[in-house]
Q: What sequence folds into this?
């Protein structure tokens, strides 16, 4: 049997980063505000904003920090209610809580996107902001969401941690709402181990975020934002010190040129495996929405016609064949299952999301995989489904 593909290692950091890292190590100049101008973090902000077509960018310690600062920079009152999808990572409601606001969970359908009927019902006069997680790169109907929010003057934050390179009707995800937040954690399209960035066209919002990120005294002058926007807020906002350091920026910058290629490779890999899996009566990979062009680095699919025991048997069979499968809703501690977010206190049940999570599977599918790796993964998943459902009609046709 061929060895299982390694789906956990990231792509090598481009060689172009090495000289800059050596320069920084030799100088010890790791703090973003030491240099009078053109520090690596400042250059990253400039280059990332240009790539995204945004006016401003602020690089910080993580996407969670970017979400937290975005919420604080909106100037929302304590206990403001922020609508978020119930299918997201626990760090998203945690950022809301950290910002002293209250998450309000909205249902998510079998296609992993926001249930728009439930969204309309929950978008009442007590909602102060909306935070859209494009979870695992699956984009909800942004036209409908923005129309509803704009009509009520409700600001939208985009959690695009999984969606760098995804577009919605030709617009880059992260540029549609008031502010977009991205991750540079190791399992994301651009890898710095940790790190995040927010982008916006709102000068006042980014000025507030810059100061709160830790631009104390007059360090904000090293950011290319209207100076009067900063002057309004100096010494009026707390400093949370969530800055990015120069080493992280040096690792990230040369990867910006790799984004488009990684998006193409990731989409090709995803679509190849998805097409094969959709030939099984037991597996469904939901289609993208019209107008959505994803940038996937993982694969999500739903198991059909299986009970809980069979779903667990499928995951075990896939693992035995060399492919790790996570079922979001069938573990006691999965950070993407909303009922495990005990820090939120009692929450209303969300039957659509709960049902989806109990059959939704997740497996890594990085852009660097080759054809033989993709077919290994597809064969393992199809074989696991056939093994699990042996004797259930058509399943034996897929058994190996």
A:
């Amino acid at each position: 049997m061929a060895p299982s593909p390694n789906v956990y290692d990231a792509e090598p950091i481009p060689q172009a980063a090495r000289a800059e890292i050596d320069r920084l190590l030799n100088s010890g100049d790791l703090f973003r505000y030491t240099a009078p101008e053109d520090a690596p973090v400042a250059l990253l902000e400039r280059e990332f904003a240009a790539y995204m077509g945004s006016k401003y960018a602020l690089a910080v310690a993580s996407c969670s920090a970017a979400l937290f600062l975005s919420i604080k920079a909106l100037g929302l009152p304590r206990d403001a209610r922020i609508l978020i999808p119930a299918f997201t990572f626990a760090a998203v409601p945690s950022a809301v809580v950290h910002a002293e606001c209250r998450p309000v969970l909205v249902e998510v359908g079998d296609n992993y996107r926001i249930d728009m009927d439930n969204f309309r019902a929950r978008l009442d006069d007590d909602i102060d902001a909306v935070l859209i997680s494009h979870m695992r790169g699956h984009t909800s109907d942004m036209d409908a969401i923005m129309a509803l929010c704009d009509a009520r003057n409700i600001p939208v934050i985009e959690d695009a941690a999984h969606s760098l390179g995804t577009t919605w009707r030709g617009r880059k995800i992260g540029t549609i709402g008031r502010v977009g937040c991205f991750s540079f954690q190791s399992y994301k399209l651009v890898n710095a181990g940790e790190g995040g960035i927010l982008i916006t066209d709102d000068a006042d919002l980014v000025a507030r975020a810059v100061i709160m990120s830790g631009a104390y005294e007059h360090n904000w002058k090293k950011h290319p934002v209207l100076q009067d926007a900063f002057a309004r807020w100096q010494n009026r906002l707390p400093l949370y010190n969530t800055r990015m350091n120069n080493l992280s920026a040096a690792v990230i910058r040369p990867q910006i040129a790799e984004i488009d290629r990684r998006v193409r490779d990731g989409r090709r890999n995803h679509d190849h495996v998805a097409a094969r899996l959709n030939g099984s009566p037991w597996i469904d990979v939901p289609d993208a929405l019209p107008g959505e062009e994803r940038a996937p680095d993982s694969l999500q699919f739903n198991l059909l016609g299986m009970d809980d025991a069979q779903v667990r048997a499928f995951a075990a069979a896939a693992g035995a064949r060399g492919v790790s499968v996570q079922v979001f809703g069938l573990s006691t501690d999965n950070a993407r299952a909303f009922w495990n977010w005990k820090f939120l206190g009692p929450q209303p049940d969300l039957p659509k999301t709960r049902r989806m999570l109990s059959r939704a599977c997740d497996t890594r599918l990085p852009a660097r995989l080759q054809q033989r790796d993709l077919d290994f993964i597809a064969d393992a998943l199809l074989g696991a489904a056939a093994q699990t459902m042996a004797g259930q009609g058509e399943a034996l046709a897929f058994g190996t």
Observations:
- Residues 116 and 141 are 8 Å apart (CA to CA).
